[in-house]
Amino acid sequence: MNLTVIGTGYVGLVSGTCFAEMGNTVTCIDVDKNKIENLKKGIIPIYEPGLEPMVKRNIENKTLLFSDVLKDNLENCDVAFIAVGTPMGEDGSADLKYVLQVAKEIGENMTTPLIVVDKSTVPVGTADKVKETIASELEKRGLEIEYHVVSNPEFLKEGDAINDFMKPDRVVVGADDDSAADTMRRLYSPFFRSSMDRLITMDVKSAEMTKYVANAMLATKISFMNEIANICELVGADVNKVRIGIGSDSRIGYSFIYPGSGYGGSCFPKDVKALKKTAEQNGYTPKLITAVEDVNDIQKLVIAKKVISKYGEDLSNHTFAIWGLSFKPGTDDMREAPAIYIIKELVKRGAKINAYDPKAMDEAKHFYLKDVDGITYFNSKYETLAKSNAMILLTEWKEFRAPDFHEIKKQLKEPTIFDGRNQYNETLLNELGIEYHQIGKKR
Ligand code: UGA
After folding, report:
1. pLDDT value of residue 117
2. Is 425 exposed, middle or buried (CB count within 10 Å of its CB: 0-12, 13-18, 19+)?
3. Does the reported pTM lie above 0.80?
4. Closest Cα to residue 267, out of 259, 282, 283, 256?
5. Which site from 120, 293, 296, 316 is most exposed, i.e. has the minimal number of CB atoms within 10 Å?
6. Where does the pLDDT of residue 89 fall: very low under 50, low under 70, confident under 90, or very high at 90 and above?
7. d(CA 307, CA 178)
């Protein structure tokens, strides 16, 4: 098929590239000319494992094209994906200005029948708005061209997006027209070699809702577990054991019940907020979803509180080695990362920070921690330790999993680890004489 993907952010670029990999001809569009020029050369703006070689391969095969002009790329296009950003508006709702701008441009320029797909995470009712916007532009032009608007939310995890796209757990398609649903089924059939059962079709509004509910449910599991961790600590239980105890019940499962420093990233915080807003706009006060958010805000600072309770409110004359800045491993993304909040909390009290992250240090230096004084960045984890009082682990990158604890002990002023991701073996650290603080366990 001939596909156009509008928006070369994370979702658009991964989706476009994976569709090209499956033999479609895909043109990715973005208003950012500089980005498009770079993409044409195979230079990609994000870090995502496996993406760059796939982009380069499909550029060479001429199955992946880039352009900054949408209007030239709608003729003979079978499916146009809207994958532009939906930033959080000031009131917490998703801002649809880019999505509707693209819909307008499609209506102004389309010449042949088209399926328009909402790929961006958009609130319930957006497909209707996209449909109306296109209809009104076609009416202005005095044209009647057949088109359908489909909701096809993405379920990609940063750091594992290629796998998620190429081998999906499920693909959700919301379509109010059978022929549009059939086209989507044909487009996705190469991704399901054994059975198409995991392509789930439904009405448009239910598909739009599914995306938010999936993320809100996962965020709920995390906040629930973080709250349980805090209670475990108070009563003297070990949340790591409790996690294994409950996860073994297949109805509960092991995934997304790891306590930590709270969920971050561009999806959970934004989508939980937007779902709450949707509920409120419809006259419902969502108690549980609000609590999920509140628990997460508190959780982000649990590690900072532990540091303060050991060293006191005044942290001047203290230096902390921070291992990990990104909101999770496998990405350079620092949006809503607990590290931002924890570092600011410590620096506010006079602490100096020695930071290292395998991928996110540029993001930290140039954006998220740009205005924060007192941070020195190092090129390796061990270099952060010299003259530091303690090491604080905030992202569970693989290279932090089994470090040389003798080296850590030797270098730190006082051998102490604060673990915001419960990665280490307490018994081992106790034997080595390293003071170990973790989430959800009293020392
Ligand atoms: C999430 C969803 O997992 C994807 O399915 C979805 O498509 C995506 O949002 C999106 O809406 O685009 P992502 O934000 O990339 O993906 O990251 P996750 O791997 O889900 O992690 C989210 C956060 O939860 C991280 O901060 C992670 O540290 C935290 N987390 C995860 C925990 O604290 N505990 C856990 O047990 C699991």
Report:
1. 98
2. exposed
3. yes
4. 256
5. 316
6. confident
7. 58
Q: Is the pLDDT of residue 204 over 90?
A: yes
pLDDT tens-digit map of 108-125: 999 999 999 999 999 999
Give residue 340 CA to ligand 1 midpoint distance, Å. Answer: 17
Ligand 1 pocket test, candidate residues 215, 242, 359, most atoms within 8 A of CB? 215
Q: Name the 3-class secondary structure at 417.
A: strand
Helix axes 126-141, 204-235, angle to 10 degrees: 150
Would the CA dihedral through 308, 411, 343, 381 be positive or negative? negative
CA 364 to chain centre: 17
Task: Give exposure, 84-93, as e/b (b: 16+ Cβ within 10 Å).
Answer: bbbebeeebb
The CA distance from 216 to 219, in Å, is: 5
Q: At 182, list the tokens.
A: 């059939």
155 lines ligand 1 (CB under 6 A): yes
- Tell me the two tokens of residue 347: 């620096």
Domains annotated on the chain, with CATH: 2-202 (3.40.50.720), 212-298 (1.10.1040.10), 300-438 (3.40.50.720)
Tokens of 246: 């409950």
The alpha carbon of 105 is separated from its chain's Cα centroid by a whole number of angstroms, namely 28
Q: Which residues are catalytic?
A: 267
From the CA atom positions of the chain, what is the Rg in Å? 24
Ligand 1 pocket mutation, candidates 268, 270, 298, 396, criterion most atoms within 8 A of CB: 268
CA separation for the pair 268, 284 (Å, rounded): 20
Q: How many whole angstroms separate alpha carbon 266 and alpha carbon 307? A: 27
Separation of first and last alpha carbons in the chain: 60
Strands 199-202 and 147-151: unpaired
The ipTM of this complex is 0.96
Q: What are phi and psi of 219, to 5 degrees?
A: -65, -35
Residue with the nearest Cα to atom 24 of ligand 1?
A: 263
